[in-house]
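Backbones bend. We report:
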Amino acid sequence: MVFVLATHACAGGLDDLGKAAELLKAASKNPATTGAGRTPATENRDATAASYSGLEGEAVVTGAPVSGFAEAQERRIISIHDGDPVFFHVRLPRPLKDYVFPTFVNDRPGLILTVGPRGIPGQQHNSIALFLRETEMNGSELHLNLAPGEIRKSSMHVWMETVGGGSHGIWDNEIRLLGRNNKLLAVAPLTAEVNDGIDKYKAMTKEYRSRFVVGDPASNEAPPNIHRNDMRLAVEVSKQASQLLGNKPDATYFTDDGWAAHTNRIGQIEYHITTATALFSTVKKVFYQNLNVKKYPGNGRIDVELDGKPRELNTDNYKRALVQAR
C-alpha cells in the first residue's frame, strides 16, 4: 500500500503550497473572533478599489462569469446575500508564472487564496493552496468560481465555508491573492449581508464538497490527489482505512489540503474534517472509496469514516489513479 505526499524541497521557498497555507494561518496572530470568526461590518467603510492601492495586481468580484477582466470591472459587486454566486477575478502586469510559489512538482505550481476581515491583512478566516492550470500560468488574468464553486485540483470552498460556517449578520470581508514570499498581490472587498441566515451557503458548501470528492462520474475518474504534506496523518488514515475496508488498499491519498471546522448551534467547534480516497481491488473489479477524516479538539483524536459506497473504475483509469497517488 502507498500513501504518497509531496515532500519535495522548494527552490528558495516553502516545501509546498499546503505548507504555505498552514504558515499563513500561523502568521495570523490575532484571529478575528466576533461572530464565529467573522468581522462585523463598519459603517461608511470605503470599499472602492482605491482602498487597495499600491498592490501589483487588481481584483474584483462579480455575481456571474465574465469573458475577461475588463468586463469584470464593469460588472463588479461589493456585497452579496446568502447563497449568491461569487466569481473572483484578478489581473496582474505579468504572467502568473512569475508570481507562483516555486516547486519541483511540475503540476503543482500555484498561489494562496485567502478570505479575511477587510483592512486587517494580519487576520484571516480561511485559506487554500491554489494550484494553477498551464493556461493560467501563461496568462496575466485569473478567473475563479468561488460559489457555487468549480472542480479543480484545489478545493474552492474558501468563500462558501467562511460565510456558511459563520453566523447571521453583516460581515465586511475581503478576498486576497498571495504569491511567492507571501506577497499580497491583489485584494477585492466583499461584504456578506446575511442577516436572514446562512443556510444556503452552508448547504452549498456541503454540496460542493460532495462534488469535489466524488470525482467525475461522466469520465469514470477518481478524485485528484492533492499531495498534502502530512505524513503522520497519512499513516493514521491508511491504518484506519485498512480496518474499515477489511483489506489494505492499493493506495490512499488526500483529496483536500486543509481542515474545515464543524461547529454546533452555539458556534463551538466539535471537530475539524478533511477528505481522502482509497483505491482497492477485488478479484474482478477495481474501486475507489471516499473517506472523511475527523480531528477532534483537545485530544487530537483522528477518526476515519467511509463516505458513501465504493465507486467502480475501469482498469485504465484505476491504473492512472495509482500513478497519481505516487
Notes: The chain has eight helices and 14 strands.
